[in-house]
Amino acid sequence: MSNKEKEYWILWNQFYAQIGPIRFEQLIKAFGSAEKAWKAPAEQFSRLGWGPNELSLLKERENLTVEPILETIIKHKATVITREEEIYPVNLLQIPAPPPLLYVRGELLPQDNLSLAVVGSRRATNYGKEVARALVPELASAGLTIVSGLALGIDAEAHRAALSVGGRTIAVLACGIDQIYPPSNASIAREMLESGKGAIVTEFPPETPTYPANFPIRNRVISGLSLGTLVIEAAEGSGTFHTVASALDQGRDVFAVPGSIFSPYSAGTAKLIEKGAKPVTRAGDILEELQVGDQIQIRKARETIAPDPEEKKILTILGPNELHVDEIFNQSELDTAKVSSLLTTMEMKGLVRHLGGGIYQSSISN
Questions:
Q1: Where are the domains of the chain?
Q2: Looking at residues 304-330, what average pLDDT do you find?
């Protein structure tokens, strides 16, 4: 995608509250690009089934320019990722109607595909906080990225617990990327960014306030980024159930922590377990159910055994291609014995795959 086309995606996303991801995708398909859609006359949108409310938005295109939006994004050291880009989260791309684009502070990494949503009551009890402090560090240390909503209570404890062991954590906002909600958790957000161990993500355009209606929309992204959702503590009727419903709709696992029968904040988790959520009393319950242990160990091994300069040169030559050893030799300007030795070592490290017949392929991004 060109930078110019991306700017038109950003412009269209200013109307996100009115058109949403389904209509957004519809207009891209109908016109072939965001730019063509932006420049199309209003009457052409009637064939898309747009009603008076949506059609009235089109008049606003004349007064909307991308420069002030980009200035806000740059001011807050954010980036924009569209769902057309390879770095868009794989898990999120698989949900129904994924966000057309994400505004991101910090960095989303491939390892974040191995992630777990941790959610619960804003009015967390001491028990709930202790559970978060017991389970999350072990899950984060095992290699899972912890995803939550930066809310008070369990969300905040989950983010802190992941950071406490140098784990990765992602906060999903229900407002624009230029804000932190609630403001009282700004210190957590700052630690996530300054440590390089976290990212702050939202699908809402800059300057979007934290409307109550945004929370269920945001919650589907929390579960959508994750392989499963862990509910540590929740009363019946809690907003946490929006995240649970989204996880189930997305075909993701739901886990719940048993609590005291005397606590109203454990009534919701008890109900979830009764309806089939997997009960959790230790981190291993989740790791075993998600069956991510092998993936984590492979990833950690590859991170530990990083390529040296000569190996990096071989990987650069390979790129996304399948090349014969002779071609690698010709491009590397190294002697044949050295190239053969490097390829053997790199195969043992899991950096390349030998496809047979002297053909090699990089596996560093897998």
A1: 1-65, 105-297, 305-362
A2: 85
